[in-house]
Design brief:
globular, 2 domains, Glutaredoxin, about 210 residues, Glutathione S-transferase Yfyf (Class Pi), Chain A, domain 2, five-stranded mixed beta sheet, single chain, alpha+beta, about 5% strand
């Protein structure tokens, strides 16, 4: 039997979600190892200095432990929905903004009790700067870079999902109607629901989980 790439993942982690989205759409089979972040397996820690999900180990022992790089690996193998056909400069710019400033503000907003220096509303307002930019883009196109889905949509969506559900009532009452539409469509997609299926925690002595 051909050895599969091994993906260490955690179901709710937005970085792991976007990696799984790309792997699933590319139809690249991998062995999924669902882990607990509170009890990380030694096998994962041994191959990745950052020791957090997602981590992909290829059959030749190459390790890819950045989620964007995992997405690119999968889509370079097969990109049936043309996620990479969008303006790469714009796509990369949006993902960079998501992964830096917005992610920091999101963490402060979601875990505001850990950052008592400011009220939660201040952290939310800081995060809203990026939400407003996405809303403007979605006024022009159905998706973030065009009228077809791109890697930017799939790389950013898990983080907007996380932000929206910190206080869903608040999010649903915002004027970001296009962002709400976009998020609802993403949440309802078969692809998202497929990658969010629950799997038992990986154990070394059990059969592999093919994803």
């Amino acid at each position: 039997m051909t050895k599969l790439p091994v993906l260490y993942s955690f179901r709710r982690c937005p970085y792991a979600i976007r990696a799984r989205l790309a792997i699933k759409v590319s139809r690249q089979p991998v062995e999924l190892r669902e882990v607990s972040l509170a009890d990380k397996p030694a096998e994962m820690q041994a191959i990745s200095v950052k020791a957090t999900v997602p981590v992909l180990q290829l059959p030749d022992s190459t390790v890819i432990d950045e989620s964007r790089d995992i997405m690119l690996w999968a889509l370079s193998k097969n990109d049936p929905e043309n996620w990479l056909s969008a303006d790469n400069g714009l796509s990369n710019q949006l993902i960079d903004m998501n992964d830096t400033d917005f992610k920091q503000h999101l963490d402060h907003y979601k875990y505001a009790d850990r950052f008592p220096e400011q009220p939660v509303e201040k952290y939310r307002q800081a995060a809203e700067v990026f939400l407003q930019q996405l809303e403007l883009r979605l006024c022009q196109h159905r998706y973030l870079t065009a009228d077809t889905v791109s890697m930017a949509d799939m790389a950013i969506f898990p983080f907007i999902r996380q932000c929206a559900f910190v206080d869903k009532l608040w999010f649903d009452q915002t004027p970001y109607i296009n962002l709400q539409r976009w998020l609802a469509a993403m949440l309802a997609s078969d692809l998202f629901n497929d990658v969010m299926k629950k799997y038992p925690l990986w154990k070394t002595d059990e059969d592999i989980t093919r994803f």
